[in-house]
Design a protein that fits this description.
Creatine Amidinohydrolase, Chain A, domain 1, Creatine Amidinohydrolase, 19 helices, 593 residues, alpha+beta, six-stranded mixed β-sheet, globular, protease, metal ion binding
Length: 593
Amino acid sequence: MSSYEDRLKALRAQLLRDRLDGFVVPLTDEHMSEYVGAYAQRLAWLTGFQGSAGSAVVLPEEAAIFVDGRYTLQVREQVDPAHWQYESVPQTSVAAWLGAHAPQGGRIGYDPWLHTRAWVSQATEALAAKGAELVAVDTNPIDRVWPDRPAPSEARLVVHEDRFAGRSAAEKRQAMADWLTGRKADAAVLSALDSIAWTFNIRGKDVERTPVALAYAIVHADATADLYVAPEKMDEAVAKHLGNAVRVHDRAAFAEALGSLSGKTVVADPERAVAAIFEGLETGGAKVLALRDPAVLPKAIKNPVEIAGHKAAQTRDGAALSRFLHWIATEAPKGGLTEMIAADRLEAFRKDTGLLEDLSFDTISGAGPNGAVVHYRVEEKTNRPIETGTLYLVDSGGQYRDGTTDVTRTIAVGTPSEEMKHRFTLVLKGHVALARAVFPKGTRGGQLDALARQFLWAEGLDYAHGTGHGVGSFLSVHEGPQRIATFGGGDEPLQAGMILSNEPGYYKTGEYGIRIENLVLVEERAIEGAEREMLGFETLTFAPIDRNLISVPILTGEERAWIDAYHAKVLEVVGPQLEGGALDWLRAACAPL
């Protein structure tokens, strides 16, 4: 299995033994997670693709890999075109491709623990047009041919204290029980890892960069719950924290437990619960209500303790990032820096806080053309020097007990070109427009997306990713349901207490990338004479925006005022944490335009 070609051959041989004419390989786990443990990295093992979103289909004579616009460049660098066709989402889909390429009368396999019921329905319908069928497998064929597949993590659970959570687990279960009662339901199945972590005020280390544990849960209308987790993850402190109202079982018992809900009305989330869960409930005789996981919205609307914790995390994280920006401003012009050196140094500054639990994702450290790869991941073979006359894009974040951070800065190394400055300023104008937005309650993120793109659009430019995603509280750096995007979501009404990113960008293939990202808090806005309840954003991230890249003449007076006020706030928040040369640098970096 030394090459990806060998792995593809081995999978095809296994499919032949399994009497299958194809197989679908998504990048997810049994919990529909975006970021998954090493044991579930089947797509990466098979193809070499290292992104965080994608799927593949393997047929006897052809194979295709499906990614969205964030990974258009990356997939071509990591996946061999001799064996794989590149397909773009949403222009096409796995189901549509199968409808066109599956063999007549073929049997296409899928793992029911890795797909939603909606996907199964779409793929079944698409295959029916070819007289082909979708076949659920009992054992994933990749697992049969992956000889050194890692075992799931055995890391122990840890208690997420109420002083960080703001609400006890018992309060959360009671609120969930009241929600169930209002819908005349007996129980809700929780399968999303961050929902379980939030509901029970527990955290784990089973997924790199995301503090969750592999588990399932069933919450009942009497506010009791059943938690399914590997026994080795439990200790006395966690058991005491969970209390008698939470019954703990082996995670391996979950599938069989679904059958014990016979005669009950059970909520399962069609977006977050896999097809196998629906099948298990219905086969067992439960009445299933396909409703959103009741933890999703309250988890997204941060309580006052979580908001205060997030602000504290942002304050220390902003100081760490500012130390890094001072360091790179000093060292990069001397030469000798690489993307990996810079990423490691930034992590060291965060560790120096003494409170860093982990990074919130692998740092995107992109110099020159690598900065144009939206979700670039530096490794030895791609590691570029940070050279004078180029742009350096660094997108990074930290996991702290009191908050999760995510921030992007684009830095000019040496003197930037006029084109770089102009396009950076277009991105900045969009960032400022979104940051200053005031909008009525009920507004969806998708309605705001154009504010950030308008200046790029006016010059025939754009970017192929959403403008904003939700962020968890010492949880996932990408959290729903809120988004600022016109595709792939963005239909959730924004509510006070939600935290999102504000991250417009621009990417010139083969040359450079630009992104400016801060996190923002949705807050209520009191406007004299207003006839509607209004909302706006409070910017939470504090780190200088590179003044050397700003073309001041194309800014309006209001835009300049916002940038100057933002930098004044950065100096106020971060300045007291710096000293010496770093403080002098910060004062210059935050000087009025």
